[in-house]
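Issue 218. Parser rejects a valid record. Input:
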Amino acid sequence: MPGATAQRTNNGWLAAWERQTLSTLAAAMPPWVTPDLLTAVGVAGGLIIFGAYAMSAFNPAWLWVASLGLVINWFGDSLDGSLARFRKIERPRYGYFLDNAIDLVMQFLLTAGLALSGYVRGDLCFIALSIFLMMSVLTLLRENVSGVFTLDYVGIGPTETRLMIIGLNVVMYLIPPWPIRLLGLELTYANGLVLIWCIGALVSFLWSMLEDIRRLAAEDPPRAR
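Output the parser choked on:
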């Protein structure tokens, strides 16, 4: 059954540090902290991200609050499953559905908030969201046919992505993006960085998709008539 028995893999740059940190945190959690409570904390972090980005259109200091929201979101979203596995109270089907459904909402809140901030063009934000969703669907397709749930692409997983966004927030606060015109478009360095991410993520998606197709074609050849 997809989700219940899938092998989770994470080869992100920070994966080894993250596993050790989450194991330590899970062991230190008091009994009243439950996986569902941590999931709620992650959702609260997502709402903080959305609200803080929207408010940063009026005061750039809200970018620091958005970064705090990313940390809170990481804490809840990453630790809920680790705590369930540590206490051996996993609910595979429920946890799988809840985690992936909420991730989709969090992706929307992040990109919509960033679009409302005015620091990045709205169309670029929703191109980034589209690529996020494409990668999410590819992950679920791979899991369905191969039994492997991959958390990263070319070494970049959810944690690395959050850290990159926090870095962007710091730079945007310290060096406010000024508009420039390029090929008839008004862009800022923030727009340029998001555009570079979009191109890189799309190339990574296509590469992974083609590699999966090639591998599956070899593993599942046409039947002789």
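Fixed in the parser; the record now loads. The first strand starts at residue 7 and ends at 9.
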